[in-house]
Structures are given as structure tokens and as C-alpha cells.
Write a structure and sequence with these properties.
This protein is α/β, with parallel strands linked by helices. Helices cover 43% and strands 15% of the residues. The model has no long low-confidence stretch (mean pLDDT 95).
């Protein structure tokens, strides 16, 4: 049974992998045996994350890249293959988020959200596809959001981008299924990250308390809560799971 979930010999690229859910997934994939490439726009953060993983015995590579820029994506794929020889797993996790009412939103803000949160996932998936073809299989995991399951007055731009990720995953699953590449989307709810601090001095206390009270498990998530689903979707255990939109939110969306 353990062989089904083993990632020994596999290589994973995690965008936005230097913190939050991305780093939590990177740690879990590394523990399962994968070599991991940590990608981020700020060179210092991927380097620190990679060093931390290496200190724990993982095989890791830090890559600075803006994944909304095609040339950067081409380079990060080339750097990963040059170091590890292949790419088997892609986690599209890079994202930005902040609220703004639609009537106050400039086209520049809209375009930036679409570029960073959606176009980046397409560019990375397309660039990794050829390497997955060479490897004979592949796993793509889009980290989306439960915001796609309901409306929010200040998150039209974020919801549009994340909803695009969901449906792109379904279409890529159809396109690349014959190539033995599985593509799925994971929808987190309230998770303690730099983007949405749930504890500490920067905690958004009232919002966190309100949402926790509506969550079935009565707590917010932590990056470590995504270890199981990440290993499942990155391993042979999910060879018959593709085009799925999987909610991982402790039951928060049940109350929305």
C-alpha cells in the first residue's frame, strides 16, 4: 500500500512554494520522497525555504521566477530539468489576494490578478506538459479557493481567477488524460498563512472567529492539513482521479 503513495524518484515544481500552503505541500511531497523545486518571485524566500528543506534531509532547489511571465516559466522548467532531469508533478499555488469593490477596481488591478492567479497556472502547466510527456506521466494540482463556491462583494477579481483555475483543470484533464497526466483542483478554506493570518499579532481576529464558528471542525486550517491531499494527488494512488474539484476546508463551505 505504501508504494501507491511513494514519490521516490519523482520531481515536483511548487509555485508560491516558499510559504503557507505551498511550503506545507513542498514539505509533504519531500517527505514522500520527491525532489522539490521551490519557485517564488522574491529570490530570498525560495532560497530560505529550500535551505530549510535541505536541512531536514530533502532534495530541494530554489528558483526565482515570476510565473506570470512566459520567459520566466520557460527558464524555471529548464533549471529544474537541468538539476533533476525530469518533472513529474506541478503544484500551481502562486497567488495574490486582497479585497476591493468591483466599482473601485482598475483594469490594471484586474489584469494583474488574472495574470498572477490564473495565467501563471496555464503557463506552468503548458511548459511542464512536454516534460511530463517525456516522463510518461504527470500530476498537476491547482490550488484554488472555496471563494469559487459562493460570492463575495470585494473578491470578484480573485473569484474569477480561481474559478478559471477550477475549470481549466477540468479541461486540461480532458486534453491530457490520454497522455497519462491527471489534473485536479484543491479548494482551501480558512488557512493560517501570510495572506490570511489567523493567529499572532497580525491575526484578523473578528473575521477568523466568525469563520471558525461556522466551520464544521471549529478551527482554521494549517498548511500541514494539506499534506494528505497533496500526496494523494501527486502519487499513483490518484491515477483514476482527474478533473476533480476537491474542497479541503474543514466544512466551512457547508455553512455558506
Amino acid at each position: 500500500m505504501q508504494d501507491l503513495f511513494s514519490l521516490t524518484g519523482k520531481v515536483a515544481v511548487i509555485t508560491g512554494g516558499s510559504g503557507g500552503i505551498g511550503l506545507g505541500i513542498a514539505k509533504s511531497l519531500a517527505r514522500a520522497g520527491a525532489a522539490v523545486a521551490i519557485v517564488g518571485r522574491n529570490s530570498g524566500k525560495p532560497a530560505a525555504a529550500s535551505a530549510g528543506l535541505a536541512a531536514g534531509g530533502a532534495t530541494a532547489l530554489a528558483i526565482q521566477a515570476d510565473v506570470s511571465v512566459e520567459d520566466d516559466v520557460t527558464r524555471l522548467v529548464g533549471d529544474t530539468v537541468a538539476r533533476f532531469g525530469r518533472i513529474d508533478i506541478l503544484v500551481n499555488n502562486a497567488a495574490i489576494s486582497y479585497g476591493i469593490l468591483p466599482q473601485d477596481m482598475s483594469l490594471e488591478v484586474w489584469n494583474n490578478f488574472i495574470a498572477v492567479n490564473l495565467t501563471s497556472a496555464f503557463l506552468c502547466a503548458k511548459a511542464c506538459y512536454l516534460e511530463m510527456l517525456k516522463a510518461g506521466s504527470g500530476k498537476i494540482i491547482n490550488i484554488s479557493s472555496i471563494i469559487t463556491q459562493f460570492g463575495h462583494p470585494k473578491l470578484a477579481h480573485y473569484a474569477a481567477a480561481k474559478g478559471g483555475m477550477d475549470h481549466m483543470a477540468q479541461s486540461l484533464a480532458c486534453a491530457w488524460g490520454p497522455d497519462n497526466i491527471q489534473v485536479n483542483a484543491v479548494l482551501p478554506g480558512l488557512v493560517h498563512t501570510e495572506m490570511m493570518p489567523c493567529e499572532g499579532p497580525n491575526s484578523r481576529g473578528p473575521i477568523v472567529e466568525y469563520l471558525v464558528n461556522r466551520t464544521a471542525v471549529k478551527r482554521y486550517g494549517m498548511p500541514a492539513d494539506f499534506a494528505g491531499i497533496a500526496i494523494l494527488l501527486a502519487s499513483r494512488a490518484s491515477d483514476f482521479i482527474t478533473g476533480s474539484i476537491i474542497i479541503v476546508d474543514g466544512g466551512l463551505s457547508l455553512a455558506m
